[in-house]
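Our preliminary data section would be incomplete without showing what the modeling component actually yields. Below, a chain of 142 amino acids is followed by its predicted structure, encoded as tokens that our downstream tools consume directly.
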Amino acid sequence: MAGCPVHVLRDKLRQAQLRPTRQRVALGWLLFGRGDRHLTAEMLFEEAKAARVPVSLATVYNTLRQFTGAGLLREIAVEGSRAFFDTNATPHHHFLVEESGALVDIPDSDLALAEIPSPPPGCAIAGVDIVVRVRRLPQKGG
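Predicted structure:
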């Protein structure tokens, strides 16, 4: 949905069984209008404020949860309760840059899992998210 026109976004919301309310469309346009990216709820809230979209932080969280539940976003949990929402909902993994806290996609071809462990009795694997923490190397030279 990169560069997503509003009419395409409304159709996408309807296909996901979500009513295209003014707030959902406005937040969806902010989310999907710039291609694939990783945002926290707070980052999206700040973008909404800058764009003069009248929403509360609670509405942003609720909308992100609804979009995630509908399969339009992926939630990537990092560092306890901190979560990013990824506009690329296809299966893939991430690097977490420790200094900036930024997430960077790992191409599927760069990571291979030999075996996934069996889930505990009475459970099924819902998905596998790998976050590889990286640290920037010191710059050489002067």
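The first strand starts at residue 38 and ends at 39. The chain has a mean pLDDT of 89. Preliminary results of this kind motivate Aim 1 of the renewal.
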